[in-house]
Amino acid sequence: MRKKFAFILAMVLSATPVMAASTNSLTKLVSVIEGTTISYDATKVDRNVYYTHTVPDSEIRIELQDGVLDDQVFYINAVDSIFEKPAYASWALGADVYTNRNNIYDTQNNKIDDFLIDTDKYSIRWINETQLEVTLKAGETLYKLPLIVKATTGMPMLQIDETSTILTGGNIRLTNKPLLKYGIQASVKDSTILPTDGYGSLGIIHFKENLVTALSGKTIKLELEPNSGLEFFRNQTNTNDDLFVSGRRGYSSSIKDDTFKFIIDEIDNQIAYIQIPELKAESGAPELEIGNIRVKAQGQEDVQLGDVRVEVSTVKGVQNYDLTEDLNPIKLTLAQVQEGKVTVSNQPTIEVVAGLTNDIVNVTIEDLTGEILTGKRNIYLLAEGARFLTGEKEIEIEIDEEEQEVKEINIDVTLAPTLNQTGDIKIISQSRDFDKDIVTIVGRSVPAVKIDTEEIFLERDTKPEPAGKIVINETMDTILKNGKVIAIKVEDLAIKDMDIETKGIEIDYKVKNGVLLMEVTKQSKEKGQIVIENIKFDISRPAGIGNYELMIGGNALSNLNQESYFEDYFEIEDFVQVSQPRYEHIQVIQPRYEDMQVKIQPIQPVKNTTNLQPQIKIDVTKDKEKQVNINSTKEEPSKVNINSTKEEPSKVNINSTKEEPSKVNINSTKEEPSKVNINSTKEEPSKVNINSTKEEPSKVNINSTKEEKPEVNIDIIKMPEITATVNTATGMATLNGKIMHLDGTPFITESNVSMMGVRDITNFLHIKDISFNNGVISIYNKGDLIELQNGSNILIKNGERIVMDEKVLIINGRTYAPVKFIGDAVDFDITVNGQITTFSK
């Protein structure tokens, strides 16, 4: 019988397929638009289309949980995409093929009818334009198939048909959004105002790539409207002020102005070309901004008023008007001609390194009529994207000329961006005599370094493991100079140790007072890199719950950091995130039955018995004695229902919480346990409803036994209310009665104002969304935005300015603010009683 059972079981097991599910994905997402071919090129020459296989742009990654013994045959279906037969023929042959009248030929003109992509691990057979047959050969757990497909429209995806296999089916998307038709988009970044003589610069054109590197090597054609009365011109040849080019996102650090060529058409001065060099994109969707495109009037007559529109398109080359399909031709309004208005221009267009260099720009303010600038006038110049080297927030120009016309004002200003000011540098001209502010782009600021980080996640009161990563990449060689220092710290946390590697640059480093200091000992010849990882912190005192910013400064990065390394610094928010430890369970030890006694004491007698309440004393003890003493008044006759037997001992069930009064149910009977329900609290004496009649015997339900021990369940409930106190003399803080740790010691100013660390206040009150950015503190609380600034006594809540009793201070690297005003701003009730501040909500 045993042998027969074993044989049947073996048959059942052998007939059951092995369940080894798979994980299906792409090794990387590919940038695609309508018509993009992936892992091959298709080029039309005359009547033939030539197909060339390339290295895989991406691969279909199939990973099995377990290896299998049998080959797995499944199908891949194409949605909003197609599998081109010649492309698969090219991959199968490992050579170019071409098509003519729906036939496929190799380069020796041999017709190709049958082919198979076959490797040691897999084979792919082309079935039709929407289906492939794939065989995964046994013995492997990881397979990578080349992604060979043409995106057509909509949301391209591949469907894995896993029928009769061990694979997991499903869809693999080729893109996360619907396909666009063109690889390049053009729009207006900023428009300008031109005088009636037409002389000046057009606005900035913003190019965005829908297909990565779609701009690379392309020729952009610009064409003014024939009736505009304007033409393109260049100041002089071979100068860097012809074009202003700025890279964004994927092109943020790889763009050089002098490699872009601005060429005016040889026949028509209303047509110009921008030749874009070969570009290499980094991560992100690449974007370009091109400006400083100069125009002037075609003749001696004034230019007509109104919008200046320019058609932007892509063509096959300079002096070639044949359009390409990279950009849908679009007309952009890049300027407006206005009569009798003030214009502002500049020479030259500058480029500076954020934090490290500065440059002089000449600003020209012109008024052709002479009416606006003549007389007593005040004009103010403000800088955006940089600061004036003098440190002034604005430059005031005073005009006091009543007798002679003033048509032009020239002024030189020196601009120096801080570390975080990269991109366009603008001069904003303001006067109450102007119709509106005049914004002029005078140059751009490029970053000295590019910083990438990996966040650190810690749990409070637990020993942290080394974690995190900081990568500092130079954007150009020799930017970090010998003898200069890079300083790194984390707000309110002390760095203890780390691992550091360098490439192309040499440094010495040390940790001082929790700050990492790295001195450059040999500057780079090519772009250098510094990698800091496995960061350890000093855990002698626990970190408060919340998010902490990473600060990277030093005189190697900014000339402002002469007296302090952190006057000017990069700030990476939420670099360290400290959370509450996750406790799964709190165990409560139950008391022994023998040690537990529940007593409800009688109310003390009073002389006036007119309103005397019933009194009861119940004592349940180990020896099962039951005592019930009842005193009743004439006003309330007692009611007692008693039914007792000797068969069952008494039972005691106690359920106790902090929030609810204790409840005692006691049942004692001879045949049926009688019932007495008692609710008792410390605040109120126990109440017992007793009914006594001659017709019914009193009932007391007491059910007591030694076999069943009482159960005590204690639930710890988080109360919605918050009550917190801070003692500014001792620094002690409590939250709902629990002593809390503060990172900074509170104090009272000479003006008798209680001050507390801003980070401590927000952690204390469970507000996690707070950021510090160049001296500006932003707190986000339930839809409200609260802002403070170092050195200022102004608190701004949702745009409303509130004057505080004290300014925001920085002491030992920590930011302090008046407790009362922060508490009020986040909707807490604040009470200050001497040295004790109480928060409640």
Distance between the termini: 75 Å
Radius of gyration: 40 Å
Name the helicity range: under 10%
By secondary-structure content and strand pairing, the structural class works out as mainly beta
How many strand segments? 69
Extract low-pLDDT stretches: 1-19, 236-240, 583-603, 605-720
Oligomer: single chain
Strand content: 35-45%
So what's the overall shape? Answer: flat
The overall pLDDT average reads 78
Largest beta-sheet characterization:
7 strands, mixed
Number of domain units: 6
Task: Output the number of helix runs.
Answer: 4
Task: Describe this entry's structure for a reader.
The chain has 841 residues and is mainly beta. The chain folds into six domains: 20-173, no CATH class; 184-337, Immunoglobulin-like; 342-446, Immunoglobulin-like (Sandwich); 449-579, Sandwich (Immunoglobulin-like), CATH 2.60.40; 614-717, no CATH class; 723-840, Copper Amine Oxidase, Chain A, domain 1. Helix content is 4%, strand content 45%. Strands 18, 21, 24, 25, 28, 29 and 30 form a seven-stranded mixed beta sheet that branches. Strands 10-11-12-6-15-16 form a six-stranded antiparallel beta sheet. It has a six-stranded mixed beta sheet with strand order 41-49-48-43-46-45, covered by helices on one side. Mean pLDDT is 78; it is low at 1-19, 236-240, 583-603 and 605-720.
